[in-house]
Structures are given as C-alpha cells and as structure tokens.
Design a protein that fits this description.
Length: about 260
C-alpha cells in the first residue's frame, strides 16, 4: 500500500469516527424528543405527513418530529354549563332557562377531524336545541315534566353530536326563571286553589256530620229506652265536671200532662 492510499484510508476512518461521535448523541436526542406520554384518561390522534394514521393508546408512544404530529383528547366525562337562555313557550310566555350537559368523547379521531372545537360546538348545539324544545310545550308542561323535556334535548343533541364522536350521557334542567308578574299571578292562583280545597273539605265534613247525626237520631227514635240511656249518659258526663251546674229531672209524662192541660 503506497502512502497516498494509506492516507486516504486513514482519512475516511477518521471521518467515520467523527461522524459516529456526533451521530449517536443526535439519535439519542431525537429518540427522547420522539417519546410522548399518553395518560390513561387520554387518547392521542396521530397524523403522519398531515394525514390521520392511528389512535395512540395510553403509555409511551413514538412520534417522529417533523414527519408526524399528534393531539391529545381527554375522554373523561365533561360537564357543559349551558348559560341562561331566553325562550318563549307554546302559550307565548317568556321565560329564562339553563341546563347542564354531561358528555364524553367516544371517538377521538372524529372529535379532532370532524369539528374544530367540540366543546364549543356542543355548547352551541345545546343552547339552540333547548330553545327549540321549550317553544314546543306550554308552561305547565315545562314545569311539570322537566325530565321529559331534558330527555328530548338529550336525544336531539346526542344524535347530532354522534357525527363528532361525542356521546351525550345526560341533560339536566337546572332552573326555570319566570317573570315577576307571572309569579304573583301563579301565587294568587295557588292561594285560591288552596282556599277552594279548604271550603270543600269543610263542606264534606259538615255533610258527613249531618248524615251521622241523622242516623243517630233515627237509631235513638227506633230503639225503646235508648233516649233514656242517652239522657243518663249526658247527665253523667255533666256531673263529672266540677262546676255549679244544677240539673232538674222532669219526667216526660209530666210534660205531656201539662201539654194536655194547655190544650184544654
């Protein structure tokens, strides 16, 4: 081997050694940067060269810098507080109503790809649906059947949100605000209804009492000696009371004799 060939050989070996010294740390750095942690309550949506490639499950996952990217999606149940909405019922009464919606992400890829901001979209959809549903029922139905109204809202929101990979678990109506003048009117109506029931109850009691007294009178009249026993019982009740009451017993025959003398 001549000197020129020897120099070339050593030069290339030297370059390889220098490159290896820089290449190993670079590979280690790239590997560390590529490791991404997905928590148990999350799912990762990975994109390769801008295209959806896979759903990353919880754990350590590799995401190659520059060529790949990802977004984390929280799959826990979330609560969306629907703010107060002004709505008009079927009987043209203006009310305020608010609610809370519980939902979770069923398909992380749809939640990222199909809609820009699923949290905002769910909130807006719930507000619109709540106003529309309230407009189809009257006030009495809304106040009596909150659960039924909430179930209708849930069905509509869940059906629309299914395209976004969102599963609506429940909808709860928190409060229904009525105008002040309507509250006063309803209070007067409730008071009148209570008075009506009280009068009816008193009338029924008087009727039942009169019927029982009539039955008792018929029984006393048709039973020989019953009136005398009742009289003696009344006297006994009066005598048990410590008072200055004096009772004079007059036989009924004497009263009849006096009555006969009066007619003469």
């Amino acid at each position: 081997m001549d000197n020129l060939t020897w120099l070339r050989y050593n030069f290339f070996n030297y370059l390889i050694l220098i490159n290896m010294e820089f290449l190993v740390p670079l590979v280690v750095v790239i590997l560390l940067v590529s490791i991404k942690q997905i928590n148990q309550y999350q799912r990762g949506v990975k994109f390769t060269l801008g295209k959806f490639s896979e759903i990353m499950e919880p754990g350590w996952r590799l995401v190659i810098p520059v060529f790949q990217s990802y977004e984390k999606v929280d799959v826990r149940t979330k609560a969306v507080d629907v703010p107060d909405q002004e709505a008009i019922t079927l009987d043209n009464i203006s009310i305020g109503i608010n609610a809370v919606i519980y939902y979770k992400i069923a398909d992380a890829s749809k939640a990222i790809i199909e809609v820009e901001n699923f949290y905002y979209a769910i909130s807006q959809l719930a507000q619109t649906t709540m106003r529309n549903i309230v407009g189809t029922v009257d006030l009495d139905t809304l106040l009596r059947s909150r659960d039924m109204i909430a179930e209708k809202i849930k069905e509509i929101v869940d059906k629309s949100a299914d395209e976004w990979g969102v599963k609506v678990e429940s909808v709860e109506l928190k409060d229904v605000r009525l105008p002040d003048d309507l509250k006063r009117t309803m209070a007067k109506e409730a008071e009148a209804e209570r008075e009506k029931r009280a009068i009816l109850i008193r009338a029924e009691a008087e009727l039942e009492s009169a019927e029982n007294m009539g039955k008792a009178a018929d029984m006393l009249a048709n039973s020989p000696g019953a009136m005398h026993l009742r009289t003696l019982q009344s006297i006994n009740d009066i005598s048990s009371d410590q008072s200055n009451t004096t009772i004079w017993m007059v036989p009924i025959e004497a009263l009849r004799a006096l009555e006969a003398l009066g007619k003469k």
